Amino acid sequence: MADAEDVRRLALALPHAAEIDSDGFDFRVADKGFVWSYPERQPGRPRVIRTDIAVLYVGDEAEKQALLLGEPDLFFTTPGYQGLPLVMLRLAEVSVDRLDELVTDAWRMRAPAALLADLDDGARVP
User: Fold this and answer.
1) What is 4-120's CATH number?
2) CA-to-CA distance for 41 and 80, rounded, in angstroms?
3) Is the pLDDT of residue 100 over 60?
4) pTM as predicted
5) Banded model confidence at residue 120, pLDDT cuts 50, 70, 90
6) Which own/partner contact pairs does 96-99 have at CB distance under 8 Å and 24+ positions apart?
7) Under 8 Å between Cβ of 24 and 51
8) Taking burial as the number of CB atoms within 10 A of a residue's CB, which of 43, 44, 54, 80 is the most buried?
9) Angle at 83 (CA atoms; ends 78, 85), nearest 5 degrees
10) Largest CA distance in the chain
11) pLDDT on residue 122
């Protein structure tokens, strides 16, 4: 079982990752978001930042569908994310090891090629 602090620890261990000011968590590499808290929107109600759910960048629609169909207990989406390469992850349902893999993959997809070598060279803080 993972939580927002695990997301924070794993994201900040990645080279050049930065947390921007937010009501939850929001991590970027080269000004591109790779994981953040889910801003839940319900009609007629104010937006609620859900730190028990992470939004992950997944790269493309094929990867998104593979995650949604392959692991529906972990991943979901909403109509507002239709057509976007993003999935929502239920943190309470994922292991920390799996979260590490997902956050690292999201970082790799958003980091410029020049920064990828920093991860491969072991610049990650455990």
Assistant:
1) 3.90.1150.30
2) 9
3) yes
4) 0.90
5) low
6) 96/2, 96/6, 96/10, 98/74, 99/2, 99/6, 99/7, 99/10, 99/54
7) yes
8) 54
9) 85
10) 49
11) 56
Dihedral sign (CA 108, 125, 115, 82) = positive
113, two tokens:
């090629």
> For residue 118, what are its two tokens?
């920093």
Q: Is a pLDDT exceeding 50 seen at residue 32? A: yes
The residue behind tokens 């889910």 is 38
Per-residue HEC secondary structure of the chain comes to CCCHHHHHHHHHCCCCEEECCCCCCEEEECCEEEEEEEEECCCCCCCEEEEEEEEEECCCHHHHHHHHHHCCCCEECCHHHCCCCEEEEEHHHCCHHHHHHHHHHHHHHHCCHHHHHHHHCCCCCC
Residue 126 is predicted with a pLDDT of 47
The overall average pLDDT reported for the chain is 92
| Extents of the domains making up the chain | 4-120
Is residue 49 packed enough to be buried (19+ CB in 10 Å), middle (13-18) or exposed (0-12)?
A: middle
